[in-house]
Amino acid sequence: DLKFKPETKEIVTFSEDDVEMILNNLKQRSRNLQVSILLLIYTGLRPSDIINIERKDIDLTEGILKYYSQKTRKYFTVPLTEELVKKIEPLIGTLGPTERIIEFKNYQILTREINKYLKRLNLKEKGYNARTFRKTFVSLAFKSHVDYVTTSELVGHSNISTTKKYYTKLSMEQKREEINKIKFPSSKESSKEGN
């Protein structure tokens, strides 16, 4: 007997309510976890991308983040949203230039702490994990009509097909909106019935 495995797993993204719960409960957590989760939500970067960011890598005035991706072995510069700047400024503003903004020893520990936080909020049972932040960011970017090339560059993909295939999930609402844009030729029979 042959068993076929799906080529890709279902793309799991946070619901709006769950993102709100994550952000609202974050205030009671450590500064370390707050900065980590805010960066993951608002940038779509990998835990391995954000773990070694130093204070000098974030220009809060210009709203720019510079980082080195361990996975792609490339340097990137990305813009930050105004909302993210407002939220992280009080958390990292007093750090020295060469201090890491996240104090977890490595990204595996960071991932484990994020998963513990999601479990504490009873969100792990929905299939959420640290990678869900990235998938949610890409899907939200697409839903907001940010083109694939820009989204791909924002999250550090070297190929936009990776962004499309593994990270984009369309909501049923968006699919419905798009399918209603299709103009079908009307048949004479259906136009007679309408009269």
Can you put this structure into words, describing what you see?
With 195 residues, this protein is mainly alpha-helical. The protein is 49% helix and 7% strand. A 3-stranded antiparallel sheet has the order 1-2-3.
Which key phrases capture this entry?
single chain, 195 residues, mainly alpha, 3-stranded antiparallel β-sheet, 10 helices
Report the principal-axis shape. globular
Q: Strand order across the biggest sheet?
A: 1-2-3
Structural class: mainly alpha
Low-confidence stretches: none
DSSP strand count: 3
Cα gyration radius (Å): 20 Å
Give the distance, in angstroms, between the N- and C-terminal Cα atoms: 56 Å
Q: Percent of residues in helical segments? A: 40-55%
Mean pLDDT, to the nearest integer, reads 86
String of helices and strands: HHHEEEHHHHHHH
Q: Characterize the largest beta sheet: strand count, sense, and whether it forms a barrel.
A: 3 strands, antiparallel
β content, as a range? 5-15%
